[in-house]
Specification:
The protein has about 120 residues and is mainly α. It has a domain of about 70 residues: Leucine-rich Repeat Variant. Helix 1 runs parallel beside helix 3. The longest helix is centred in the middle third of the chain and has 14 residues. It is elongated and about 80 Å long. The relative contact order is 0.11.
């Protein structure tokens, strides 16, 4: 960035002109790779606050800029699927009444064709 980082943050948060605030948000998104960790956190916080800006241009530009803030994406990667246990679930519900099989009482089932009756 050719201007000071603090100035960009200041203009994003305090400039009365929406166009200047939008430009500041855009600059943060374009130069995210060159930010230190402390600047990255400050910029992300300022952009999050800009999501509440009353001007839709600033809001949309802040949203676009935040899409570039993925430095910590690995911290939020989906967990690996659990290993397959080998046994498939045979039935989760009675095919006659539709109740979960854990709730089917074979002795008192009102259906004559209940597969759980002995």
């Amino acid at each position: 960035m050719s201007i000071a980082f603090e100035d960009v943050i200041y203009h994003l948060q305090h400039n009365p002109q929406a166009g200047v605030r939008a430009q500041a948000a855009q600059m943060l998104g374009e130069h995210v790779a060159s930010l230190t960790d402390a600047q990255y956190d400050s910029a992300r916080e300022a952009l999050n606050q800009a999501l509440a800006d009353p001007d839709p241009q600033v809001l949309m530009t802040a949203m676009q800029a935040l899409s570039h803030f993925n430095r910590h994406a690995a911290d939020y990667a989906p967990a690996a699927a659990p290993a397959d246990s080998g046994t498939a679930v045979q039935a989760a519900a009675c095919r006659v009444c539709g109740r979960p099989e854990a709730l089917v009482d074979a002795a008192t089932c009102e259906y004559d064709t209940c597969p759980y009756r002995a």
